[in-house]
């Protein structure tokens, strides 16, 4: 198993990222399970890159939210609808990739019969929450 966090600071940032992201899912927090796999100060000095595995239980949803940087994602398992403001809704299934521009309001709904599992990499501004609820 590889070393995904090399310092206490990295572990603290990973926990902070997980808490911030969990807070945007609203009342369905118990249906969304996030694991920060890696948090690296790159590209320095103003950004960091965070890799997160997300599992959304059947019928769950990530409520509308934003990120202070780009999100690049891949669907490992399940079916979803990705809604990004200014774009038509997009159906996603295992094997599909997606991206969300910085600060774009977006949501993800699990529309499949089982859990939805995604892997996302965020390149976001340092000292900003990884995610914020949409206003």
Question: What would your notes on this structure say?
Answer:
The protein has one helix at 8-23; strands at residues 32-40, 47-56, 61-66, 69-77, 79-84, 90-93, 97-100, 106-110, 116-125, 132-133. The chain is built from one helix and ten strands, in the order H-E-E-E-E-E-E-E-E-E-E. The chain has a five-stranded antiparallel beta sheet, with helices on one face. By secondary structure, it is mainly beta. The longest helix has 16 residues, at 8-23. The protein has one domain (8-133): Jelly Rolls, CATH 2.60.120. The N and C termini lie far apart (40 Å). The protein is 12% helix and 48% strand.
CATH level 1 class label:
Mainly Beta
Largest β sheet strand count, sense and barrel closure = 5 strands, antiparallel
If you average the pLDDT, what whole number results? 85
Radius of gyration: 14 Å
Give the helix proportion (percent range): 10-25%
Strand content: over 45%
Structure classification: mainly beta
- How are the strands of the largest sheet arranged? 1-2-9-4-7
Shape, per Cα inertia axes: globular
């Amino acid at each position: 198993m590889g070393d995904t966090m090399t310092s206490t600071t990295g572990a603290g940032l990973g926990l902070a990222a997980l808490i911030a992201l969990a807070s945007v899912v609203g009342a369905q927090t118990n249906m969304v399970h996030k694991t920060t796999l890696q948090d690296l100060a790159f590209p320095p000095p103003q950004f960091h890159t965070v890799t997160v595995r997300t599992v959304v239980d059947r019928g769950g949803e990530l409520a509308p939210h934003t990120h202070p940087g780009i999100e690049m994602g891949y669907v490992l398992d399940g079916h979803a609808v990705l809604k990004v403001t200014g774009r038509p809704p997009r159906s996603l299934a295992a094997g599909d990739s997606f991206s969300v521009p910085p600060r774009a309001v977006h949501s993800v709904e699990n529309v499949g019969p089982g859990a939805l599992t995604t892997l996302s990499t965020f390149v976001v501004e340092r000292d900003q929450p990884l995610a914020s609820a949409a206003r």
